[in-house]
């Protein structure tokens, strides 16, 4: 070693022996060659006791193993270890906690490798660490117990108690893997929804215990038959589901057929041989993004179809096949948005006085500008609006918008000021106590002469609840508006009621007008409708007039007004204005070409 | 499928921190480290083999730079879990005719792997092996330890919990006589997750793989050190008796890690064994 300037060598000796920690020098194997006074004093050994023995021999066996397996290789490879916690067995047999740090000098020339060790007494620190570690171990153990309890709880929550199969929640939890596998492009994911046929009969005739026994027996048959990788779950009652990855649709339906066979074999329940059968719906996962819920629901739809087609069979749900319930709900939501977002449009169809040939009014007809299906006629959504009650806001909008438009026409053009506007009321609106105030409000808002507003009610709506309808019609009549019976002739109205209602016009259903000139029966009906109207002192209006011949016949029959494609199809407001301009003076609408 | 297979391969490689070095054209030597260490412990032995062999190293899960998140108490509750990893490494790298070198407990993990896939390994080199560390009073087997000793080891591990916990580990001061040693090696050498180390210690030191020995058909070399606390001479003899096609070599090296303390002598013994016809 090179000389180091500084203290005299005698001080090194003192530093070694009187250092504030134990110093030892050993060979690679741990054999002690030198030890300082501090260590001797601390451990109670004499110098001859220690020199020649291994440092490991001063440690308990556990520490020895650790020293051999961890510290010696670390010294050999990395050249140092630091703060290894050990215990030193002292001369009096007591154990003293210590921290050991060491560094190794490799062999050089004749000098063998040496290891220099320092040992600190670490009683307090070790006690403290021991407490921390034991607290940690306890925490780990209680965490492990908690995790185990939670695991058990989860298992129970995900399991059907009767059959031990996963329940609906369990199925969901299990199926992540399936969806992932499908994403990796491995085969076709399919769900088989299995429902026992006539299970209720077993429950009713043999009791619930027998029913339960049957379900357990079915579960036992399904599991081995469903396939090795398949997940079998019981969703509810007698409804089971099998989900698996198949090579293709054919394999999935073949599996369904096999399961039907397996379930057809008689089962012994409470000593009775019961023959069961099942209906199975198969759904194959379609586009990406389909959830497991969607898949199961589609399998469910197919299962119900299998039931309705005679049971004991399977049916396949095509991915493109629609789900009526879901479609309806989706459409309703769209319509609700459509009403609030301004997707509704009004088209106006002129009504022409057959005697003068001039337009006397328009019928407002609602259209729905659907985001994906285009412009929809009322027949595509009014029924749905009626059932859901959406017809109320829809009807209110139609009335208000029509009156607003009529006000515009009045302002723009004095010639349009006497134009009648006809608006349809639905059966549901007729039952709505808010109808009369709504109409009153709309009329006042647009400062409309009530006599220019015609409210059309279908004959069938009137006949639904004639008593209630009468009250509403009377109240509307009191507002000064005109009332028309729409689609007349198809609803078998009784003349008595017709006479009672405060009606101003009859609109003859277009199906009869269509037959004019070809069907003598239709001609007779149209004639009697016109006569009937005139007999009670109201006007007759023909709907759906499409040909000059029909116009001629209707005029001969004495019909008052007419509307239809012969004159004009329902037109958006700007086109209607053009049409009115073209047909107001001199030009007879009955001879004008059809505007399209 | 190819992608899936590639993903599986890379996950094995990441899990066990598999590293490959040496002569890519040479026969394969796969080194498995023992309890308390990691693949760095082979460092002094490797120069004797890297010229001629394709050397594959790895860390057991929980040790070194393996993926501790892959640790699973059930899987690694027996040595079989470690043997399964070893076989997966061979499969992932498509290794064949592997010379498997296992130290300490990994010598027995190697034996288990060789029984499970006998065709995969050409030779087994068992460094300081022991099929059972505790004595068995029923048949007089001498393993060297009592159950109480092993409990003491678990206590020792607990005492070093904080020293082994990544964030709290003390940093050894640089050794001026080994200046070339990389800083990261000094701080990370044989670092192990303390909770996993405790479980691995229990699994290792309470294992009994004696019943596997008779089934090992692969030729093996037993390297017995003098003065090995963990594998007394009786254990080497026992192994030699029960392993068919085994060669027992007593090394002069003392202690449990001859590849660290006496790499040259250890390498020479292995080379001689490999040179001899099987």
What does this structure look like?
The complex is a heterodimer of chains A (596) and B (278). Helices cover 47% and strands 22% of the residues of chain A. Chain A is an alpha/beta fold and 596 residues long. Chain A folds into three domains: 9-121, PAS domain (Beta-Lactamase); 168-321, 2-Layer Sandwich (Alpha-Beta Plaits), CATH 3.30.70.270; 329-589, TIM Barrel, CATH 3.20.20. Residues 586-596 of chain A have low confidence and may be disordered. Chain B has helices at 2-15, 79-92, 105-116, 147-159, 161-164, 183-188, 194-205, 210-213, 233-242, 258-261, 263-275; strands at residues 19-22, 28-32, 54-58, 98-103, 121-127, 219-226, 246-254. Chain B has a seven-stranded mixed sheet, sandwiched between helices. In chain B, helix 1 packs across helix 2 and helix 2 crosses helix 3. The longest helix of chain B is centred in the N-terminal third of the chain and has 14 residues, at 2-15. Classes of the chains: A alpha/beta (596), B alpha/beta (278). The interface between A and B is large, with 45 and 51 residues.
């Amino acid at each position: 070693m090179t000389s180091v300037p500084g203290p005299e060598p005698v001080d090194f000796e003192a530093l070694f022996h009187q250092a504030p920690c134990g110093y030892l020098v050993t060979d690679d194997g741990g054999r002690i060659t030198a030890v300082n006074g501090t260590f001797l004093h601390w451990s109670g050994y004499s110098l001859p006791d220690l020199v020649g023995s291994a440092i490991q021999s001063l440690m308990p066996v556990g520490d020895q193993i650790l020293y051999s397996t961890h510290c010696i290789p670390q010294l050999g490879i990395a050249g140092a270890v630091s703060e290894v916690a050990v215990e030193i067995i002292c001369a009096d047999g007591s154990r003293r906690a210590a921290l050991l740090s060491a560094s190794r000098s490799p062999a050089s020339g004749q000098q063998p490798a040496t290891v220099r060790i320092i040992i600190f007494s670490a009683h307090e620190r070790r006690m403290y660490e021991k407490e921390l570690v034991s607290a940690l171990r306890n925490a780990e153990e209680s965490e492990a117990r908690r995790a185990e309890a939670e695991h058990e709880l989860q298992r129970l929550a995900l399991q059907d108690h009767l059959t031990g199969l996963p329940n609906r929640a369990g199925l969901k939890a299990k199926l992540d893997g399936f969806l992932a596998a499908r994403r990796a492009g491995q085969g076709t994911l399919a769900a088989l929804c299995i429902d026992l046929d006539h299970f209720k009969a077993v429950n009713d005739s043999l009791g619930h215990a027998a029913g339960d026994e049957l379900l357990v027996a079915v579960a036992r048959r399904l599991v081995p038959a469903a396939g090795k990788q398949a997940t079998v779950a019981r969703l509810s009652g007698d409804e089971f589901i099998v989900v698996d990855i198949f090579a293709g649709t054919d394999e999935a339906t073949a599996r369904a057929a096999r399961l039907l066979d397996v379930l057809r074999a008689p089962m012994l329940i409470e000593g009775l041989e019961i023959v069961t059968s099942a209906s199975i719906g198969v759904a194959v996962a379609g586009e990406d993004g389909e959830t497991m819920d969607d898949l199961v629901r589609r399998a469910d739809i197919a299962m119900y179809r299998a039931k309705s087609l005679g049971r004991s069979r399977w049916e396949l749900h095509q991915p493109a096949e629609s789900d009526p319930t879901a479609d309806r709900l989706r459409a309703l939501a769209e319509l609700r948005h459509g009403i609030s977002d301004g997707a509704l449009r009004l088209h106006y169809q002129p009504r022409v006085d057959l005697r003068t040939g001039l337009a006397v009014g328009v019928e407002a007809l609602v259209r729905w500008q659907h985001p994906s299906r285009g412009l929809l006629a009322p027949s595509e959504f009014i029924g749905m609006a009626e059932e859901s009650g959406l017809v109320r806001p829809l009807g209110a909008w139609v009335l208000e918008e029509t009156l607003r438009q009529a006000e515009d026409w009045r302002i723009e053009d004095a010639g349009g000021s006497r134009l009648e506007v006809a608006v349809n009321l639905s059966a549901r609106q007729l039952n709505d106590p808010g109808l009369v105030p709504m109409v009153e409000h709309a009329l006042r808002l647009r400062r409309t002469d009530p006599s220019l507003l015609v409210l059309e009610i279908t004959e069938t709506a009137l006949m639904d609840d004639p008593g209630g309808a009468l009250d509403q019609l009377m109240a509307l009549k009191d507002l000064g508006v005109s009332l028309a019976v729409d689609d007349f002739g198809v609803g078998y109205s009784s003349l008595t009621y017709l006479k009672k209602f405060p009606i101003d016009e009859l609109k003859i259903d277009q199906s009869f007008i269509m037959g004019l000139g070809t069907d003598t029966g239709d001609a007779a009906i149209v004639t009697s409708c016109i006569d009937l109207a005139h007999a009670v002192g109201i006007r007759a209006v023909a709907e759906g007039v499409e040909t000059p011949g029909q116009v001629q016949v209707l005029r001969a029959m004495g019909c008052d007004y007419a509307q239809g494609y012969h004159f004009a199809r329902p037109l958006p407001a700007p086109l209607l204005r053009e049409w009115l301009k073209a047909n107001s003076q001199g030009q007879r609408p009955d001879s004008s070409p059809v505007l399209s | 499928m190819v992608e899936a297979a590639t993903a599986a391969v890379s996950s094995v490689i990441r899990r066990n921190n598999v590293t490959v070095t040496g002569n890519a054209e040479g026969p394969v030597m796969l080194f498995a480290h023992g309890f308390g260490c990691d693949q760095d412990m082979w460092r002094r032995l490797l120069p004797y083999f890297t010229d001629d062999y394709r050397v594959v190293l790895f860390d057991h899960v929980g040790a070194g730079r393996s993926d501790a998140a892959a640790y699973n108490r059930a899987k690694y509750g027996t040595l079989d879990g470690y043997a399964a990893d070893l076989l997966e490494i061979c499969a992932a790298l498509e290794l064949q005719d592997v010379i498997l070198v296992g130290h300490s407990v990994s010598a027995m993990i190697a034996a288990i792997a060789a029984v499970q896939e006998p065709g995969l390994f050409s030779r087994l080199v068992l460094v300081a092996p022991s099929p059972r560390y505790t004595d068995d009073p029923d048949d007089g087997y001498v393993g060297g330890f009592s159950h109480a000793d092993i409990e003491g080891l678990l206590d020792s591990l607990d005492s070093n919990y904080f020293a082994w916990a990544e964030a709290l580990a003390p940093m050894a001061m640089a050794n001026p006589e080994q200046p070339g040693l990389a800083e990261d090696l000094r701080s990370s050498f044989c670092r192990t997750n303390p909770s996993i180390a405790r479980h691995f210690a229990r699994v290792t030191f309470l294992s009994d793989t004696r019943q596997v020995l008779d089934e090992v058909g692969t030729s093996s070399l037993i390297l017995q050190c003098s003065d090995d606390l963990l594998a007394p001479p009786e254990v080497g003899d026992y192994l030699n008796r029960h392993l068919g096609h085994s060669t027992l070599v007593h090394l002069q090296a003392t202690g449990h890690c001859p590849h660290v303390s006496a790499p040259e002598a250890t390498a020479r013994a292995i080379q001689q064994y490999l040179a001899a016809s099987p």
